[in-house]
Design goal:
By secondary structure, this protein is of the alpha/beta class. It has helices at 2-29, 35-39, and strands at residues 31-32, 48-49, 55-57, 63-64, 68-69, 77-78, 83-84, 88-89, 97-98, 103-104, 108-109, 123-124, 128-129, 143-144, 148-149, 162-164, 168-169, 181-184, 188-189, 201-204, 208-209. A nine-stranded parallel sheet has the order 2-5-8-11-13-15-17-19-21, with no helix packed on it. It has a four-stranded parallel sheet with strand order 4-7-10-12, with no helix packed on it. Strands 14-16-18-20 form a four-stranded parallel sheet, with no helix packed on it. Residues 1-28 have low confidence and may be disordered.
Length: 210
């Protein structure tokens, strides 16, 4: 009887130890943002501020009435069907993937994030800032409703048919040539980059700055 009791207590200790490790692990690694968690980070204008918070993921179909900030978080993916009626700040975050049907009414600041590829079909109403990211590709026919910055990225090519409604910044990137067809309504800031091939069909609303 005492033997069985000892075995039972030993199993309970192991179970308690495992649960404790699981809880500690959750605290260290973060957690998914739940509905009630979200209420703790919303202001009166519908802005969702998760900056420096321990969350690692967002729920699919998330709708944010104002701005969304995931700056300096471990969130690696924007969920499918994300709708942000303001702007997105993902600066210095671990963000690496964006759901294809995401919609951002304002700008998208991705400075210092881990974005390597920008998917087709993502709607952004303002500028796109990829400065200091490992960006490698942009979709063909991309239309940017503001400035586009690929400063200090390893990007080697801009997409064919690119339209930038603001300024284009490429300084410190790996770009040495432009696509055959490109539209920039503002200025092109080369930032020291030497372009060996210019577009055959370039529509430029401003000037080129070296």
């Amino acid at each position: 009887m005492l033997v069985f009791l000892f075995i039972g207590l030993n199993k309970m200790k192991k179970l308690t130890h495992a649960l404790l490790i699981g809880c500690l692990s959750l605290g260290v690694n973060g957690q998914e943002l739940g509905h009630y968690d979200m209420l703790n980070h919303l202001d009166n204008y519908g802005n969702l501020d998760l900056r420096n918070k321990p969350y690692t993921s967002l729920p699919d179909g998330l709708v944010v009435k104002g701005n969304l900030s995931i700056a300096k978080t471990s969130i690696q993916r924007l969920p499918n069907g994300l709708e942000v009626n303001g702007s997105l700040d993902a600066s210095n975050s671990q963000l690496a993937r964006v759901g294809r049907q995401s919609s951002i009414r304002g700008y998208a600041n991705l400075l210092g994030s881990q974005i390597r590829q920008w998917p087709r079909g993502v709607k952004v109403g303002g500028f796109l800032n990829f400065t200091d990211t490992p960006l490698q590709s942009l979709p063909q026919g991309l239309v940017v409703n503001g400035d586009l910055s690929v400063i200090r990225t390893p990007l080697t090519a801009l997409p064919e048919g690119l339209v930038v409604k603001g300024n284009l910044y490429i300084g410190g990137s790996s770009l040495t040539e432009f696509p055959n067809t490109m539209t920039v309504n503002g200025n092109i800031f080369l930032g020291g980059n030497r372009i060996q091939k210019w577009p055959d069909n370039l529509t430029l609303g401003g000037a080129v700055a070296p």
